[in-house]
Request: fold
Amino acid sequence: MVTLSNDDIKRISLFESMTGALAEDCIVEGDRLAFIVKEGDVGRAIGRNGETIRRVREAFGKRVDVFENAETMEKFIRNLFPGIEIRELKVSDADGAKAVQIAVGPKDRGPAIGRDGERIKLARAILERRYGAKLKLV
Reply:
C-alpha cells in the first residue's frame, strides 16, 4: 500500500481538477512529477492534441508524466515504457526481494534509458514505491 503525503494529496487534487482523470499516485523524482492514473484515463489526462497535459505542466512548473495503472505488475511495467517494445520481462522473488529484469531491442535502448538516464530512474522509483521491486534494464 502506498502512503501519500499531504503534498502528494494536494498535487493529485490539482491534477484531477485540471484533467478530470482519476490519479491513484503521485511520484516526485528530481524535477519531474509522475501521476499514475486509473486504467483508461490516460487519454483524458493528456487531452486532445496534448492540451490538457500542457496546462498541467505549466501549472506545476515541472515535467509531468502520466502512466496508466494495470491489474498486473507486468502490464504496469509495459505501461511505464510506452512506445518501447519490451522483448523480455522477468520477475523474480529471491529472499523476499522482488527484482524485475527487462530486455529491449538495440534501437529502443536509448529511449528506454532517456536523456541522462531520467526515464529509467523514474521507472525504478515508481516500481520501488508501488511494488518494492528493483528494475534492471539489460
In short: Residues 83-137 form a domain with the GMP Synthetase; Chain A, domain 3 fold (CATH 3.30.300.20). The first helix runs from residue 6 to 19.
